[in-house]
Protein backbone atom coordinates (compact mmCIF):
# COMPACT_ATOMS: atom_id res chain seq x y z
CA UNK A 1 0.00 0.00 0.00
CA UNK A 2 2.88 2.36 0.82
CA UNK A 3 5.51 0.31 -0.99
CA UNK A 4 6.79 3.31 -2.96
CA UNK A 5 7.06 5.62 0.05
CA UNK A 6 10.50 6.00 1.64
CA UNK A 7 11.56 7.76 4.83
CA UNK A 8 14.86 9.63 4.49
CA UNK A 9 16.72 10.61 7.66
CA UNK A 10 19.22 13.37 6.91
CA UNK A 11 22.18 13.52 9.31
CA UNK A 12 20.42 11.98 12.33
CA UNK A 13 22.45 12.43 15.51
CA UNK A 14 21.37 9.54 17.72
CA UNK A 15 21.30 5.84 16.74
CA UNK A 16 18.47 5.25 19.20
CA UNK A 17 16.29 7.67 17.24
CA UNK A 18 17.08 5.80 14.04
CA UNK A 19 16.00 2.53 15.64
CA UNK A 20 12.77 4.05 16.95
CA UNK A 21 12.08 5.49 13.50
CA UNK A 22 12.43 2.05 11.92
CA UNK A 23 9.78 0.77 14.32
CA UNK A 24 7.51 3.74 13.53
CA UNK A 25 7.89 3.04 9.81
CA UNK A 26 6.85 -0.58 10.17
CA UNK A 27 3.88 0.40 12.35
CA UNK A 28 2.52 2.41 9.43
CA UNK A 29 3.36 -0.02 6.64
CA UNK A 30 6.56 1.62 5.38
CA UNK A 31 9.57 -0.65 5.02
CA UNK A 32 12.04 1.57 3.14
CA UNK A 33 14.45 3.86 4.93
CA UNK A 34 17.47 5.82 3.76
CA UNK A 35 19.96 7.21 6.26
CA UNK A 36 22.10 10.10 5.00
CA UNK A 37 25.46 10.93 6.59
CA UNK A 38 24.48 9.80 10.11
CA UNK A 39 26.48 11.10 13.07
CA UNK A 40 28.26 8.32 14.93
CA UNK A 41 25.84 5.61 13.76
CA UNK A 42 25.90 2.46 15.89
CA UNK A 43 23.74 -0.47 14.79
CA UNK A 44 24.02 -2.15 18.20
CA UNK A 45 22.45 0.90 19.86
CA UNK A 46 19.77 1.28 17.20
CA UNK A 47 18.54 -2.32 17.01
CA UNK A 48 16.97 -2.57 20.50
CA UNK A 49 14.79 0.48 19.75
CA UNK A 50 13.71 -1.00 16.43
CA UNK A 51 12.61 -4.19 18.23
CA UNK A 52 12.66 -7.61 16.62
CA UNK A 53 9.65 -6.75 14.47
CA UNK A 54 11.32 -3.84 12.65
CA UNK A 55 14.84 -5.25 12.69
CA UNK A 56 14.70 -5.93 8.95
CA UNK A 57 13.67 -2.33 8.20
CA UNK A 58 16.75 -1.04 9.99
CA UNK A 59 19.16 -3.64 8.62
CA UNK A 60 17.94 -3.09 5.05
CA UNK A 61 18.13 0.71 5.30
CA UNK A 62 20.37 2.26 2.66
CA UNK A 63 23.12 4.59 3.89
CA UNK A 64 24.15 7.46 1.61
CA UNK A 65 26.77 10.18 1.91
CA UNK A 66 24.77 13.06 0.40
CA UNK A 67 21.13 14.07 0.11
CA UNK A 68 21.16 14.33 -3.73
CA UNK A 69 22.50 10.78 -3.86
CA UNK A 70 19.73 9.59 -1.54
CA UNK A 71 17.01 11.25 -3.63
CA UNK A 72 18.00 9.70 -6.95
CA UNK A 73 15.06 7.96 -8.62
CA UNK A 74 12.27 9.62 -6.64
CA UNK A 75 9.53 11.52 -8.46
CA UNK A 76 8.51 13.67 -5.49
CA UNK A 77 10.32 14.70 -2.31
CA UNK A 78 8.71 16.35 0.71
CA UNK A 79 10.73 17.83 3.54
CA UNK A 80 9.79 18.61 7.12
CA UNK A 81 10.41 22.00 8.71
CA UNK A 82 9.66 23.81 11.94
CA UNK A 83 10.65 27.15 10.42
CA UNK A 84 8.20 29.13 8.33
CA UNK A 85 8.22 32.46 6.53
CA UNK A 86 10.53 33.87 3.88
CA UNK A 87 10.68 31.54 0.91
CA UNK A 88 9.27 28.67 2.99
CA UNK A 89 5.71 29.25 1.82
CA UNK A 90 2.79 26.96 1.09
CA UNK A 91 3.80 24.69 3.96
CA UNK A 92 1.40 21.77 4.42
CA UNK A 93 0.01 20.06 7.48
CA UNK A 94 0.53 16.28 7.82
CA UNK A 95 -3.05 15.57 6.71
CA UNK A 96 -2.72 17.79 3.63
CA UNK A 97 0.63 16.24 2.78
CA UNK A 98 -0.91 12.78 3.07
CA UNK A 99 -3.43 13.60 0.34
CA UNK A 100 -0.67 14.89 -1.95
CA UNK A 101 1.50 11.82 -1.28
CA UNK A 102 -1.46 9.51 -1.90
CA UNK A 103 -2.12 11.15 -5.27
CA UNK A 104 1.52 10.82 -6.29
CA UNK A 105 1.67 7.17 -5.25
CA UNK A 106 -1.55 6.31 -7.06
CA UNK A 107 -0.19 7.76 -10.31
CA UNK A 108 2.92 5.60 -10.21
CA UNK A 109 5.21 7.97 -8.33
CA UNK A 110 8.02 7.16 -5.92
CA UNK A 111 7.90 9.50 -2.93
CA UNK A 112 10.50 10.39 -0.30
CA UNK A 113 9.80 12.07 3.04
CA UNK A 114 12.89 13.85 4.35
CA UNK A 115 13.45 14.51 8.06
CA UNK A 116 16.37 16.74 9.03
CA UNK A 117 18.82 16.64 11.95
CA UNK A 118 17.20 16.65 15.37
CA UNK A 119 18.89 19.88 16.47
CA UNK A 120 18.89 22.01 13.30
CA UNK A 121 16.40 20.68 10.77
CA UNK A 122 16.82 21.17 7.03
CA UNK A 123 18.63 24.21 5.63
CA UNK A 124 17.33 26.32 2.73
CA UNK A 125 19.76 24.53 0.42
CA UNK A 126 18.35 21.17 1.44
CA UNK A 127 14.71 22.26 1.24
CA UNK A 128 15.37 23.51 -2.30
CA UNK A 129 15.64 19.84 -3.30
CA UNK A 130 12.10 19.20 -2.04
CA UNK A 131 8.88 19.32 -4.04
CA UNK A 132 7.11 20.73 -0.98
CA UNK A 133 7.39 21.26 2.76
CA UNK A 134 5.36 20.10 5.74
CA UNK A 135 5.25 21.15 9.39
CA UNK A 136 3.62 19.51 12.39
CA UNK A 137 1.56 21.95 14.48
CA UNK A 138 2.42 21.81 18.18
CA UNK A 139 1.63 23.63 21.38
CA UNK A 140 3.71 26.77 21.97
CA UNK A 141 4.73 25.33 25.33
CA UNK A 142 6.37 22.33 23.67
CA UNK A 143 7.42 22.74 20.04
CA UNK A 144 10.13 20.08 19.95
CA UNK A 145 9.28 16.57 18.75
CA UNK A 146 11.41 13.46 18.93
CA UNK A 147 12.45 12.26 15.46
CA UNK A 148 10.45 9.03 15.67
CA UNK A 149 7.42 10.93 16.98
CA UNK A 150 7.51 13.24 13.98
CA UNK A 151 7.87 10.32 11.58
CA UNK A 152 4.98 8.34 13.03
CA UNK A 153 2.65 11.38 12.97
CA UNK A 154 3.32 11.96 9.27
CA UNK A 155 3.19 8.28 8.32
CA UNK A 156 -0.05 7.77 10.25
CA UNK A 157 -1.73 10.39 8.07
CA UNK A 158 -0.29 8.77 4.93
CA UNK A 159 -1.41 5.31 6.07
CA UNK A 160 -4.91 6.52 6.91
CA UNK A 161 -5.22 8.27 3.54
CA UNK A 162 -3.98 5.21 1.66
CA UNK A 163 -6.75 3.11 3.20
CA UNK A 164 -9.42 5.34 1.68
CA UNK A 165 -8.56 4.90 -2.03
CA UNK A 166 -8.49 1.90 -4.36
CA UNK A 167 -5.36 1.01 -6.32
CA UNK A 168 -5.02 2.59 -9.77
CA UNK A 169 -2.70 0.80 -12.24
CA UNK A 170 0.18 2.68 -13.89
CA UNK A 171 -0.35 4.38 -17.24
CA UNK A 172 1.93 4.03 -20.29
CA UNK A 173 5.67 4.79 -19.82
CA UNK A 174 5.45 8.26 -21.36
CA UNK A 175 2.88 9.21 -18.71
CA UNK A 176 5.02 8.18 -15.76
CA UNK A 177 5.91 10.90 -13.24
CA UNK A 178 9.27 12.59 -13.72
CA UNK A 179 12.08 11.81 -11.31
CA UNK A 180 13.75 14.42 -9.11
CA UNK A 181 16.83 14.23 -11.35
CA UNK A 182 14.71 14.95 -14.43
CA UNK A 183 13.06 17.86 -12.64
CA UNK A 184 16.47 19.28 -11.71
CA UNK A 185 17.54 18.96 -15.37
CA UNK A 186 14.42 20.87 -16.39
CA UNK A 187 14.98 23.58 -13.77
CA UNK A 188 18.58 24.07 -14.92
CA UNK A 189 17.44 24.31 -18.54
CA UNK A 190 14.61 26.72 -17.71
CA UNK A 191 16.97 28.87 -15.66
CA UNK A 192 19.35 29.13 -18.60
CA UNK A 193 16.48 30.08 -20.92
CA UNK A 194 15.02 32.65 -18.51
CA UNK A 195 18.44 34.23 -18.06
CA UNK A 196 18.87 34.36 -21.83
CA UNK A 197 15.67 36.41 -22.25
CA UNK A 198 16.48 38.63 -19.23
CA UNK A 199 13.56 37.30 -17.20
CA UNK A 200 15.77 36.32 -14.25
CA UNK A 201 18.21 38.62 -12.49
CA UNK A 202 21.80 37.57 -13.01
CA UNK A 203 22.99 38.50 -9.51
CA UNK A 204 21.24 35.53 -7.84
CA UNK A 205 19.34 33.39 -10.36
CA UNK A 206 18.92 30.44 -7.98
CA UNK A 207 17.01 32.69 -5.59
CA UNK A 208 14.71 34.02 -8.32
CA UNK A 209 14.06 30.47 -9.53
CA UNK A 210 12.45 29.51 -6.22
CA UNK A 211 8.93 30.65 -7.26
CA UNK A 212 9.30 28.62 -10.46
CA UNK A 213 10.28 25.57 -8.42
CA UNK A 214 7.31 26.10 -6.10
CA UNK A 215 4.99 26.31 -9.10
CA UNK A 216 6.19 22.99 -10.49
CA UNK A 217 6.03 21.37 -7.05
CA UNK A 218 2.24 21.68 -7.30
CA UNK A 219 2.18 19.71 -10.55
CA UNK A 220 2.62 15.96 -10.92
CA UNK A 221 4.78 16.50 -14.00
CA UNK A 222 4.73 13.57 -16.43
CA UNK A 223 7.59 12.48 -18.68
CA UNK A 224 5.81 13.57 -21.87
CA UNK A 225 5.21 17.02 -20.34
CA UNK A 226 8.88 17.14 -19.33
CA UNK A 227 9.86 16.43 -22.95
CA UNK A 228 7.58 19.24 -24.15
CA UNK A 229 8.99 21.82 -21.72
CA UNK A 230 12.57 20.78 -22.44
CA UNK A 231 11.88 21.24 -26.15
CA UNK A 232 10.41 24.71 -25.62
CA UNK A 233 13.34 25.69 -23.40
CA UNK A 234 15.92 24.51 -25.93
CA UNK A 235 14.09 26.39 -28.70
CA UNK A 236 14.23 29.60 -26.65
CA UNK A 237 17.97 29.16 -26.20
CA UNK A 238 18.45 28.50 -29.92
CA UNK A 239 16.45 31.61 -30.83
CA UNK A 240 18.50 33.81 -28.50
CA UNK A 241 21.76 32.44 -29.88
CA UNK A 242 20.55 33.00 -33.44
CA UNK A 243 18.93 36.42 -33.08
CA UNK A 244 20.10 37.75 -29.72
CA UNK A 245 18.02 38.66 -26.66
CA UNK A 246 15.09 41.01 -27.01
CA UNK A 247 16.22 44.61 -26.57
CA UNK A 248 14.51 46.90 -24.07
CA UNK A 249 12.59 49.72 -25.75
Automatic annotation (TrEMBL):
Subcellular location: Cytoplasm
GO cellular component: cytosol
MF GO annotations: RNA binding; tRNA (cytidine(32)-2'-O)-methyltransferase activity; tRNA (cytidine(32)/uridine(32)-2'-O)-methyltransferase activity
Keywords: Cytoplasm, Methyltransferase, S-adenosyl-L-methionine, Transferase, tRNA processing
InterPro entries, alphabetized: Alpha/beta_knot_MTases (IPR029028), RNA_MeTrfase_TrmJ/LasT (IPR004384), SpoU_MeTrfase (IPR001537), tRNA_m1G_MTases_N (IPR029026)
Top class in the EC scheme: transferase
Residue intervals of the tRNA/rRNA methyltransferase SpoU type domain: 5-156
GO-annotated biological processes: tRNA nucleoside ribose methylation
Known EC number: 2.1.1.200
Catalytic reaction annotation: cytidine(32) in tRNA + S-adenosyl-L-methionine = 2'-O-methylcytidine(32) in tRNA + S-adenosyl-L-homocysteine + H(+); uridine(32) in tRNA + S-adenosyl-L-methionine = 2'-O-methyluridine(32) in tRNA + S-adenosyl-L-homocysteine + H(+)
Function, in words: Catalyzes the formation of 2'O-methylated cytidine (Cm32) or 2'O-methylated uridine (Um32) at position 32 in tRNA.
Subunit note: Homodimer.
UniProt family annotation: Belongs to the class IV-like SAM-binding methyltransferase superfamily. RNA methyltransferase TrmH family.
NCBIfam families: rRNA_methyl_1
Entry protein name: tRNA (cytidine/uridine-2'-O-)-methyltransferase TrmJ
Upper classification of the organism: Bacteria, Pseudomonadati, Thermodesulfobacteriota, Desulfovibrionia, Desulfovibrionales
Gene it is expressed from: trmJ
Amino acid sequence: MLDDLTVVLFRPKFPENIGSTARACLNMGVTKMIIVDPYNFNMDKALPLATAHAKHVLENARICETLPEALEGFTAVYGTTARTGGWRKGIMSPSTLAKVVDERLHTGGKVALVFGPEDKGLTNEETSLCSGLMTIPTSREGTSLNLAQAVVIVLYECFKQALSKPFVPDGPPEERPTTIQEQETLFANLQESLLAINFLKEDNPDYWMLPVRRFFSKINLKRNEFNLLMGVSRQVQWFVRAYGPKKDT
